[in-house]
Structure to design on (371 residues):
């Protein structure tokens, strides 16, 4: 099967799944009520819309969804009151979060337990593609933030007539990266991203996410500059609220993996964003996984790419260009953790660059650039 047609089929399969009311899930709320809630996307009058219903009381749950530009930036922000309903810890304490267990019995995809409501094994794959190293299945995300399509890609294998989802940890390997790069190269409209553990991933089972999005994201057109010795395919984001490395869409998988591995080996969390003509690798400040300035969740790939998704209405209203820069500076690293693997010594914005953030004073996660 050609990858291109898989992506087209996937987009069509998403539309069909919404129309036939398959993008629906039932879960229990976290509050004391322990109500059973049905949440999903439906087509109403030719448009896709979120809905939620309290199955315990039969009451429809109406929540706001708003989207606006953040003035003075190319970023947008979405407040999604429906996503606020989804199961999550009551309050996240700022700082580094507890490790997510890699134990297969505690896997949040319930990859070996089809009896669980939210088990991936109960969802139909919307698409399947066999790439160089793995066969991959695309599943709908249980709480989509993109109405045009929000999917999870998981390595899969087939055992007789049933699908098996091997419980691989959420850590990149070269074969996984090769496959996702080839999927990306054969798709114009799909944004693919990988959140590492402690950088937005809440499930320790190998998964990538994909969204079909209508608008260009800020990171696609952000300024870049050469860094380090100015040699090679790497650039860094310049005059952009977040720090990060930028590679060409056609980067050699081995080179990109060397950069990823440098982070993984040092246990530096990261986000990897494949969008448009770019691949952006965003090393994260491990001490600022959750920050008070971004209540209700953790910053992850979409936020760094230009779309802030927030479940706190007050924070939605208050977000402006200054707050945005403070948040994204705080959660991304301004220095590269190791020498050798990539010829980049620092990814900090130039001191003379316009619009730079104030100097950091906490010294957290700073390292002296290697000689
Ligand atoms: Zn699993």
């Amino acid at each position: 099967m050609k990858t291109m047609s898989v992506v087209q089929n996937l987009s069509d399969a998403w539309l069909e799944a919404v129309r036939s009311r398959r993008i629906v899930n039932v879960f229990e709320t976290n509050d004391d009520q322990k109500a059973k809630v049905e949440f999903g996307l439906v087509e109403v009058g030719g448009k896709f819309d979120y809905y939620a219903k309290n199955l315990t009381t039969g009451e429809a749950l109406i929540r706001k969804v708003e989207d606006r530009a953040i003035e003075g930036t190319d970023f947008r922000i979405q407040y999604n009151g429906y996503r606020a309903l989804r199961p999550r810890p009551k309050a996240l304490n700022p700082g580094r979060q507890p490790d997510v267990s890699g134990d297969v019995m505690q896997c949040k995809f319930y990859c070996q337990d089809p009896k669980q409501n939210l088990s991936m094994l109960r969802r139909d794959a919307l698409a399947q593609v066999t790439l160089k190293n793995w066969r991959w299945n695309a599943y709908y995300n249980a709480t989509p933030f993109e109405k045009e399509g929000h999917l999870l890609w998981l390595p899969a294998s087939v055992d007789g007539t049933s699908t098996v989802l091997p419980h691989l940890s959420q850590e990149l390997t070269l074969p996984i990266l090769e496959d996702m790069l080839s999927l990306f190269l054969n798709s114009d409209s799909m944004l693919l991203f990988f959140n590492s553990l402690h950088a937005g991933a809440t499930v320790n089972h190998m998964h990538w996410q994909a969204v079909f999005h209508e608008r260009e994201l800020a990171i696609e057109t952000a300024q870049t500059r050469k860094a380090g010795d100015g040699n090679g395919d790497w650039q860094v984001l310049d005059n952009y609220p977040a720090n990060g490395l930028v590679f060409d869409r056609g980067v050699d998988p081995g080179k990109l993996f060397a950069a990823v591995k440098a982070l993984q080996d040092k246990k530096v969390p990261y986000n990897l964003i494949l969008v448009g003509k770019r691949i952006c690798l965003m090393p994260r400040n491990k001490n600022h996984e959750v920050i008070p300035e971004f209540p209700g969740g953790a910053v992850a790939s979409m936020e760094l790419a230009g779309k802030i998704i927030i479940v706190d209405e007050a924070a939605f209203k208050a977000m402006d260009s200054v707050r945005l820069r403070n948040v994204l500076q705080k959660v991304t690293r301004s220095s590269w953790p190791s020498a050798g693997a990539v010829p980049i010594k620092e990814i900090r914005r130039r001191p003379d660059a316009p619009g730079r953030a104030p100097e950091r004073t906490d010294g957290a996660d700073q390292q002296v650039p290697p000689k």
